[in-house]
Amino acid sequence: MTDAARKTPLYDLHIELGAKMVDFAGWTMPVQYPAGIMAEHAQCRDKAALFDVSHMGQVTLHGDAPAAAMETLVPAALTTLPVGKARYTMFTNDAGGILDDLIVSNAGDHLFVVVNASMRDQDIPLMAALPGVDLVEITDHALIALQGPKAESILAPLCPEAATLKFMETTTATLLDTPVRISRLGYTGEDGYEISIPQDKAADITRALLAHDDCAPAGLGARDSLRLEAGLCLYGNDITPETSPIEAGLIWSIQKSRRTTGGFPGADRILNEIANGAARKLVGIQPAGRAPARQGVEIQSETGTPLGQITSGGFGPTIGGPVAMGYVTTEHATPGTAVTLIIRGKPQPATVVALPFVAQNYKR
After folding, report:
1. Cβ-contact 238, 230 below 8 angstroms
2. I want to staple 196 with a disulfide (CB 3.0 to 4.6 A). Which of 57, 181, 308, 350 is the partner?
3. Which residues of the chain have pLDDT under 50?
4. Which CATH superfamily is domain 279-364 in?
């Protein structure tokens, strides 16, 4: 870890809990706890796991029309987003590639936005430059994610408003006499919440949630294996400035009104791919053996023709074997297609499969 790595408001608690800390996007973060990544992964799938995601960038956008201004940067429809609703979208560049993905919530008189930690130095100035928009970066709040099928039963007794939310809904509430923002969403494929908490109350609230028999802490390692099984893209791996939302299978995040009007960076390419298809697609890859296929592994046809590369890969604890995602040419993207992976110089059989590997369990 570098000396300059920032600490979240929960750093001391992580140390107390025995976390292994690593430098991630300039922050000192827990990668795992003594139970280990496999146990933390299972905890989230079966009960509930609590993640510190305070490294993510939290901002509010104020002004006369912040939603309309944001629509000049993203392909999502935000002016029609109802109060109390959140929407997944991405910043695009003029070439139709993805600069970052983010969550935008309509908080009533302003927008609440959460961006990736690694890209906050790009994203925040991008939004701050919007005309007529007053951006405030929230630096005095922690952000935790309570994820898993038991998340509601853990949180609702302490905060009844949590039970009223459905997937991709958000509200302000009081949690242990503390004003917080609770959003029902996450990055694991399971039901759950992200909670923005004043930093001076973050440790107390986190301890109260962890005191529940069905809740345990989890780190970055389990967060990655969970999102991979759920078929969720990781910025810098599965989505990049070179990949388009259509190639990445994210057409669902572009509402119909934006598919006809455009008005966002890279609209020409993106709308053309919506109409005519993309040359390649992000797919699930199931290696036949036990060897995991990591980022950068070449994907070939059975006859040796290069098709693309693995973008994310590892062991899927719920699946009980290796899982991966990667880009292949569209004609080879049909589930069931046999492909070959070149792992450490040796060809290994694999199969294109439909995403996600594990069914998503959101409360809709």
Report:
1. no
2. 181
3. 1-2
4. Aminomethyltransferase beta-barrel domains (2.40.30.110)
